[in-house]
Amino acid sequence: MANLLEFRNVTKTYTRGFFSEAGTTALADFSMVLKEEDPTILTVAGESGSGKTTLAMLLLGFIDPTQGQILYKGEDIRNLRGDARMTFRREVQAVFQDPFAVFNPFYTVDHLLTVPIEKFKLAKSKAEARSKMDEALSAVGLRPEDILGRFPHQLSGGQRQRINVARALLLKPKVLVADEPVSMVDASLRANILESLRGLHRDHGVSIVYITHDLTTAYHVANSIVVLYKGGVMEAGDIDSVIQKPEHPYTQLLIDSIPWPDLDRRWGTDGLSVKESELSDKGGNGCRFAPRCPYAKDECLTASPPLHRVKETQVASCILHQQHPVLPSANLTDVLPV
Ligand code: SF4
């Protein structure tokens, strides 16, 4: 069976002007696979500027790679035409950060849900369309009778975001890209939305690519994680290993900065969150994280460290792990469990 989705050595560089040769690499040599028969929840984590949103935009086909390929069911998504393109558009859905953005204030919720049903010809009658709407809303824990017929301003942010998830579900997607879906929602409602996403995965076999800067929510929903920094993979693996025993100084820094409720819990290395390396950034040939890394040495500045396989399902791009084997082709496929 062909892979559902494959990133094959994908690099995305943004240039500043038409004649400008230098550019900013938002994502560098990224390779991984989502398998159709093994749906998963994969977190892509990092700070602003890490490349995680670029990865989402590439996956959705909104932007093209500068190098490499993104394949959907074995076909380069740039080459999809006609029915194949419509299938990709239907099967790869997105839920974005702002639960308000997709709502037109002059239309009821019914309209938002009817548009995709009509566009993709999902129902042969109004009764069938209504039945599908009911099913999708119920799947995300909303009561259709409370929601349908309402205008956006009559709904909470949490309800709107769950309607967005229901809208994606209507299309029976294979992949859902959830880009910071709870960051603009009240903390009290986040668990509901995240549970809706887990339900989509568990009950409907949808693979979810959960893009976030928030490792606490990632820990609760995901099977695996990729940590990005300035477009490069710093660490990746199964979520328990990476969060409980991070092997890259950047992941340790992210985890150290979380106000975990358990005061006895010790993460990472003392002082890492406050100390900045005295090494300066010498042109970007070395480790991306060197200017902030307390362990940085001169050799960190000469070449970008490869991904070392510290265990079966965990890799880290750091010379501190150079006793471990290098991951061939930097391909994360076998490292990320489902
Ligand atoms: Fe720090 Fe060097 Fe490891 Fe980069 S390679 S994270 S600078 S120790």
Count of helical regions = 10
Mean pLDDT, all residues: 88
Main sheet properties: 8 strands, mixed
Regarding quaternary structure, what we see is single chain
CATH structural fold name: Rossmann fold
Strand content: 15-25%
N-to-C span: 17 Å
Number of domains: 1
**How many extended strands?**
12
Radius of gyration: 21 Å
> What's the CATH H-level superfamily name?
P-loop containing nucleotide triphosphate hydrolases
CATH architecture: 3-Layer(aba) Sandwich
Overall geometry comes to globular
Category by helix and strand content? alpha/beta
Under the CATH scheme, which class?
A: Alpha Beta
Low-confidence stretches: 266-283
Order of H and E elements: EEEHEEHEHHHHEHEHEEHHEE
Identify every distinct bound molecule in the structure, by name, code or SMILES. iron/sulfur cluster
Strand order of the largest sheet: 6-7-8-3-9-10-12-11
The residue fraction in helices comes out at 25-40%
Description:
The structure is a single chain. The chain is α/β, with parallel strands linked by helices and 338 residues long. It has a single domain (28-65, 87-335), classed as 3-Layer(aba) Sandwich (Rossmann fold). The protein is built from ten helices and twelve strands. The strands form two sheets. An eight-stranded mixed sheet has the order 6-7-8-3-9-10-12-11, with helices on both faces. The longest helix is centred in the middle third of the chain and has 18 residues, at 187-204. It is globular. The structure holds iron/sulfur cluster.
